TrEMBL record:
<feature type="domain" description="4Fe-4S ferredoxin-type">
    <location>
        <begin position="43"/>
        <end position="73"/>
    </location>
</feature>
<protein>
    <recommendedName>
        <fullName>NADH-quinone oxidoreductase subunit I</fullName>
        <ecNumber>7.1.1.-</ecNumber>
    </recommendedName>
</protein>
<feature type="binding site">
    <location>
        <position position="63"/>
    </location>
    <ligand>
        <name>[4Fe-4S] cluster 2</name>
    </ligand>
</feature>
<keyword id="KW-1003">Cell membrane</keyword>
<keyword id="KW-0560">Oxidoreductase</keyword>
<feature type="domain" description="4Fe-4S ferredoxin-type">
    <location>
        <begin position="89"/>
        <end position="118"/>
    </location>
</feature>
<dbReference type="GO" id="GO:0050136">
    <property type="term" value="F:NADH dehydrogenase (quinone) (non-electrogenic) activity"/>
</dbReference>
<dbReference type="GO" id="GO:0051539">
    <property type="term" value="F:4 iron, 4 sulfur cluster binding"/>
</dbReference>
<comment type="subunit">
    <text>NDH-1 is composed of 14 different subunits. Subunits NuoA, H, J, K, L, M, N constitute the membrane sector of the complex.</text>
</comment>
<dbReference type="GO" id="GO:0009060">
    <property type="term" value="P:aerobic respiration"/>
</dbReference>
<feature type="binding site">
    <location>
        <position position="59"/>
    </location>
    <ligand>
        <name>[4Fe-4S] cluster 1</name>
    </ligand>
</feature>
<dbReference type="GO" id="GO:0005886">
    <property type="term" value="C:plasma membrane"/>
</dbReference>
<keyword id="KW-0677">Repeat</keyword>
<feature type="binding site">
    <location>
        <position position="104"/>
    </location>
    <ligand>
        <name>[4Fe-4S] cluster 2</name>
    </ligand>
</feature>
<dbReference type="InterPro" id="IPR017900">
    <property type="entry name" value="4Fe4S_Fe_S_CS"/>
</dbReference>
<feature type="binding site">
    <location>
        <position position="101"/>
    </location>
    <ligand>
        <name>[4Fe-4S] cluster 2</name>
    </ligand>
</feature>
<keyword id="KW-0411">Iron-sulfur</keyword>
Length: 174
């Protein structure tokens, strides 16, 4: 220890006193995120408005923090939520447990689950940090029907992915 150590410390303080203050105007001047930033999850839809989630629960199994709960349900002719036989009837993500690792995204076979660049997830109520299916679903685009709506499927589910929007409108595929 030297006698000049306190003077070195005061020198650092003294040198910062005359520098320009940098203030970020956060709410007004929204900062951009990296293109591949992992933020809030979103459940995507097909172009005709049907959900892509088939309720397979692979995202819940892949989650190391056990933050995802999925309960699958069966589609019927009267109520169709997804093009397949099943859909995600109950879907919840607990952001108190989520570590943002993205393993759930990699496990999804239908690319139903993706992560947005939205990073404002803080809240002072623990219940509002458990996102339900309604909060996670992508909004309907203008002109889309409100699911569930009746839909004729082909001989197999693959027909939908090839000719889905035409079948949903009742047109015959080309």
């Amino acid at each position: 220890m030297s006698i000049f150590d306190p003077l070195k410390g005061f020198g650092v303080t003294f040198s910062t006193m005359f520098k320009k203050v940098v203030t970020e105007e956060y709410p007004e001047d929204f900062p951009g995120t990296a293109p591949r930033y992992h933020g809030r999850h979103q459940l995507n839809r097909h172009p005709d408005g049907l959900e892509k989630c088939v309720g397979c629960e692979l995202c819940a199994w892949a989650c190391p923090a056990d933050a995802i709960f999925v309960e699958g349900g069966d589609n019927s002719d009267d109520e169709r939520y997804s093009p397949g036989e099943r859909y995600g009837a109950d879907y919840q993500i607990n952001y108190l447990r989520c570590i943002g690792c993205g393993l759930c995204i990699e496990a999804c076979p239908t690319r139903s689950l993706t992560m947005l660049n939205d990073f404002e997830l803080a809240d002072d109520d623990r219940q509002r940090l458990i996102y339900t299916k309604e909060e996670l679903l992508a909004p309907l685009l203008p002109g889309m029907e409100q699911p569930p709506h009746p839909m004729r499927l082909g001989d197999n589910e693959q027909d939908y992915y090839v000719n889905g929007p035409q079948l949903a409108r009742g047109e015959t595929p080309k």
